[in-house]
Amino acid sequence: MKIGMVGLGRMGANMSLRLIQKGHEVVAYDRNQEAVDGVRSEGARGAGSLDELVRALEPPRAVWLMLPAGDPTEHTIADLEGLLDSGDTIVDGGNSNFHYAIEDAGRLAQKGIAFVDAGVSGGVWGLKNGYCLMVGGDAEPVERLEPVFVALAPESGYAHVGPVGAGHFVKMVHNGIEYGLLQAYAEGFALLNAADEFELDIHQIADLWRYGSVVRSWLLDLTELALANKDEFSHIKGYVEDSGEGRWTVEEAINRAVPAPVLTVSLFERFASRQPDSFAAKIVAALRNQFGGHKFFEESAGAEVAAQQQAPDADAAGEPAAAS
Questions:
Q1: Does 68 sit behind a cis peptide bond, omega within 30 degrees of 0 on the bond before it?
Q2: Of 29, 31, 51, which Cα lies nearest the Cα of 39?
Q3: Cβ distance 116 to 90 under 8 Å?
Q4: Are strands 114-121 and 132-136 parallel, antiparallel or unpaired?
Q5: Distance CA 131, CA 124 (A)
Q6: In the predicted model, is pLDDT for residue 324 greater than 60?
Q7: Can you name the residues that pair with 244 across neighbouring β-strands?
Q8: Cβ neighbours around 95 below 10 Å, total
Q9: pLDDT tens digit string along 70-79?
Q10: CB atoms within 10 A of CB 170
């Protein structure tokens, strides 16, 4: 099957290569010419523009987008709307908001252009292991593109999960769960690392749990890999971004009155990772000092020093100062 691929980043390039390896033809476009040259060297046909990409495909055309969610994806869909014909299909494989998918599909349908939203999981390992695909859309375009989905996915790793929007919704919840799993592993290994009296080999434990343990998973396999090189791990900065899906998952949980405390806390922990000098933490330290005389730390001549204010004789209720 012949398909256009727009967006040749870490995911799009490898997906193109996997399709080529499985016998499909790929016409590839990216604003970065080096990225186009890279997949061309592996057998793809390069395109210098969206218009050139569309002209290189035969009707009914299929164009797969692997672009950042938001404006880059929406602007490209709008551009393709003016280039494609009735019977053609756009597949959005980025982590877009499912609300956008529904809106885009409704608008494109007026011109006879089908829209398919495909949640894609697999990361940089997908080229070798395959990509889990959660596909939303009408039956006809999904069935027509099924050879592509099957080629990209490992065995049993592809499903048509529902109508337009369902693919992105399922992927959104998938990523929300991922936030919670990552946070659970992070907190557990942090606790192991804090047990200095046992001199635990954290990498050894990560490897041990991969065999027969109830907490074994692919994420644990990746944890073991991350901990294998102690020097490399020591240079990692504990700053964690969120790419949108975690926020949307929490928002949907609120909108639908579904309790999701673990997913919510894991999202807020990512926010906390970006605040090395947290104002909120300063407030907590200052209040603990005020009500209990607890020490706080301040910057002095570039070094942290302990500071102790005179604790009040009584708290606001007239009782002796708290000792907690």
A1: no
A2: 29
A3: yes
A4: antiparallel
A5: 10
A6: no
A7: none
A8: 23
A9: 999 999 999 9
A10: 19
Q: What is the mean pLDDT of residues 155-163?
A: 98
Task: Please report how the helices 245-255 and 166-194 are oriented relative to each other, as an axis angle in degrees rounded to 10.
Answer: 110
Rounded Cα gap, residues 303 and 92, in angstroms: 50
Angle at 278 between CA 272 and CA 282, to 5 degrees: 135
The C-alpha atoms of residue 307 and residue 324 are separated, in whole angstroms, by 18
**Contact in structure between 119 and 171 (CB atoms under 8 Å):** yes
- At position 99, the amino acid (one-letter code) is H
Place of tokens 């936030």: 179
Q: What is the pLDDT of residues 27-36, one digit of tens each?
A: 999 999 999 9
Distance (Å, rounded) from C-alpha 40 to C-alpha 42? 5
Contact (CB, 8 A) for 117 and 108:
no
Q: Which residue has tokens 């020097």? A: 231
DSSP per position, 146-165: HHHHHHHS-TT-EEEEESTT
Is 146 among the residues known to form the active site?
A: no
Measured CA to CA, the distance from residue 258 to residue 252 in angstroms comes to 8
Tokens of 277: 């000098």
Backbone angles phi, psi at 230, to 5 degrees: -60, -40
Out of 25, 81, 178, 269, the active site residue is 178
Residue matched to tokens 């047990």: 195
Active-site residue 230, yes or no? Answer: no
pLDDT, greater one: 232 or 22 = 22
CA distance 198 to 192: 9
